[in-house]
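Standup notes
- HV: blocked on the assembly model, inputs below
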Amino acid sequence: MVKLQIDHLTKHYWVEREDRNVLALSDVSFSVDDGEFLGIVGPSGCGKTSMLNIIAGLLPYEEGNVSIDGKRVSGPGIDRAVVFQHSSLLPWRTIAGNVRYGMELQRRFDEAIMKQRTDYFIKLVGLSGFDRHYPSELSGGMQQRVNLARALAADPVVLLMDEPFAALDAQTREFMQAELLKIWSKAKKTVVFITHQINEAIYLADRVVVMSARPGRVKEIFRVPFGRPRDLSLKRDARFLELEDSVWKLIEEESDRLGMVAAV
Amino acid sequence: MKTETTLTQTHLETKAPARPRQSFFQKYEGAILGGIAVLIVIGIWQAIWSYTDWISPLFFSGPSAIAKAFWISLTQGNLLADLAFSGKNFAIGFGIALVSGVVIGVIIGWYRRIRLILDPFLNALYAAPRIAMMPLIIIWFGIGMWSKVFIVFLSAFFPILVNTVAGIRNMDRDLLRAARAFCASDWQIFKTLAIPGSVPFILTGVRQGVAVGLIGVVVGEMLGSSEGVGFMVAYGGQTFQTDTLFVGFVIIAFAGILLTSLAERLERRFSRWRPER
């Protein structure tokens, strides 16, 4: 069953500095099934983040259509929650206060349920005992767990993740990927996960959308053939590396086209 | 395969750390070293005052003479009345400045148009030394308490206002984006982001306001008053009672230290969530 549908989405930007119109996304179409984990990879400047912002309702669009359960997206909604690249936690709120922040803004649950859900999701992301700490007392990886708990606690239909592990060191990132899969297997949400890391997308996703650069187009969509649960050692499996390599070639083609191999 | 699972596991089960124990000296290192230094300086000063004739009592004073003058004005003079007068003027003026500065600052910070209209006036008044208006204020309010209240208000109002405006405006774009994504209304953004985010700024304004407010009350009393600690200093100077002058000066210094450290403490308490500074 299709949860999120994107049809012929095109997005223009007016770039003040260059005094011209830039085409960020051109005729992007794909769909995400209910409960599916969709990864989106592409070189920098392929409009990934613009697309996520459009799905989140944070960026208006004129051409094409984005719909969730057949309903057109025209602004932020309680059916979506975003995990941002920067943890964007309220520094004056404790971890518990941050986890309940999304629910509080959406006013969907009464106090008792909010309290219950806060506790549940703090535990789910493995931060029990830290609920009275402040974000500045937590490491980057732990802050992103809070970020994830805040989004999940709001009980979205679609969870949008915008390069959530990009700012973490390589080791923490690996742990967080494994953790995310574990949490996802319990929370069972439809996920759109944006990254510039090919192996991250393959390791996490059911299907991967490869995007082209400037303007952002869907270059290819492929299904990840590995079953679940997936262990981190999968990343060193020959078939995994082969798949990673073929995606890398697709993106390299793109970079060649734009003459920016080194920039990817 | 096995090791990876266990690694993830330990990663998960980290417990909240306990605060490390500190010895008494480590905890109060600043207070102890600073206190000893102050005592040594006062000791040397007193020794020079008592055992040499390097200090002329007309131009300067010594710790024991100041203490004696303090005791005399406390028991026989007007010290308590002067202190009460200055303290009351400061408290009323500062209170009005705090409330109005924060309220008007929040409004100006939140509504862009109001800010654009008022900006030139605020900048001019913020930059100008308000104390220079004291003669005018005396014409308006006379030499009684209200001219002092007004100069304290005028001094403290602008730092509080300007910092509040900066605090409201300085909203983190990432936080704003997150709040919007969770369907936050303008009112919710105001309540949950703008106001708490501006608290450290407001407290910086309070600290600056305390400092200039003190200057305001003292200079105000020096320029036109018949009571107050500022008057005491001015009177001591005019009548060559150097010891009395010093008593007033020491009291003002202590009031400054006390109020500023109170404000600093408040500032620190409310920015506990800030990363190490």
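- HV (later): unblocked. Residues 92-270 of chain B form a domain with the MetI-like fold fold (CATH 1.10.3720.10). The interface with chain A takes residues 1, 4-5, 7-8, 11-13, 15-16, 172, 174-175, 177-184, 188, 192-193, 196-197, 199, 272-275 of chain B (CB under 8 Å).
- Next: hand off to the docking folks.
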